[in-house]
Amino acid sequence: MTEYALFETAIGVAGIAWNEAGLVACHLPEREAETARRGFLRRFPDSVEAEPPGSLRPTIAGIQALMRGEKADLSAAPLDLSRTPEFHARVYEIARAIPAGETLTYGEIAEKLGDKLLARDVGEALGKNPWPIVVPCHRVTAAGGKPGGFSARGGVNTKLRLLAIEGAKAAAQGDLFA
Q: Residue range 31-41: average pLDDT?
């Protein structure tokens, strides 16, 4: 059974969904709670809204801290990777290691995977990331200081906003806006 919870952040209502194995999804902050709720119910029609277990409270606190512009480490958040292709899981593991305020390019992740020609595949994997913020796909940019894509609501503007909140050097210097 999948359960979900919504919670306030400095920039709107965010949410997490989980099962007995860990997080199955995260929802980026929205202005309205109902928008986030509909997002979970679209993805998990049989899910129920519930009080999050104590084991996920640090994840919620970390997401809230990041949205306030504070540093937070979400690398210990438990993910249910049972429906995640192996390549995607490897990409997500590398992305999770990018500290707040820093970025890697799609090509740099591809090189860490052993082949710089995998950059497009890295982007595809990140575009299917079910755990934005916890798996910080917004910290992955295109070559040459370009932001690259972002599949969440608001697209690249949301990505740039998240990077700015985190104080990413590239966002602060305006490099991503080129």
A: 93
Rounded CA-CA distance 155/164 in Å is 15
**Based on the domain organization, do 92 and 169 belong to the same domain?**
yes
Q: Which contiguous run of DSSP H or E holds residue 156?
A: helix 155-165
Q: Report pLDDT digits (tens) over 115-173.
A: 999 999 999 999 999 999 999 999 998 887 777 776 666 677 778 888 888 888 755 44
Between CA 91 and CA 120 the distance in angstroms is 12
Catalytic residues: 137
Domain limits for position 133: 86-177
Cα separation, 177 vs 173, whole angstroms: 9
Residue with tokens 């595809």: 124
- What is the separation, in whole angstroms, between the first and last Cα of the chain? 45
